[in-house]
Write a structure and sequence with these properties.
The protein has 79 residues and is of the alpha+beta class. The chain is built from two helices and three strands. Helix 1 (9-26) crosses helix 2.
Length: 79
């Protein structure tokens, strides 16, 4: 099977940056934003968006994980 990259690293970063800006725009600011990811890939995505949002927002954005079984495990951290 031939493997082919759909997006290169720079393309992914650009897309995530646009998503981060959309989150801030749709939230009318960053005051009430909290990112929660579902382990494992969702948690990684929330972390990446948190890093990008830290460069956009005037304050750190809490980032954590949520258990898909319904129990929350919020391990918030400041970027």
């Amino acid at each position: 099977m031939i493997e082919r990259a759909v997006l290169q690293g720079a393309d992914i970063t650009r897309a995530l940056t646009r998503i981060a800006h959309e989150i801030v725009e749709q939230s009318r600011g960053a005051d009430d934003i909290v990112l929660l990811g579902i382990p494992t890939r969702g948690a990684f995505l929330a972390e990446r968006l948190g890093v990008i949002l830290a460069g956009i927002a005037p304050h750190p954005i809490p980032v954590g994980t949520i258990d898909a079984s319904g129990e929350m495990n919020i391990a918030a951290r400041n970027s």
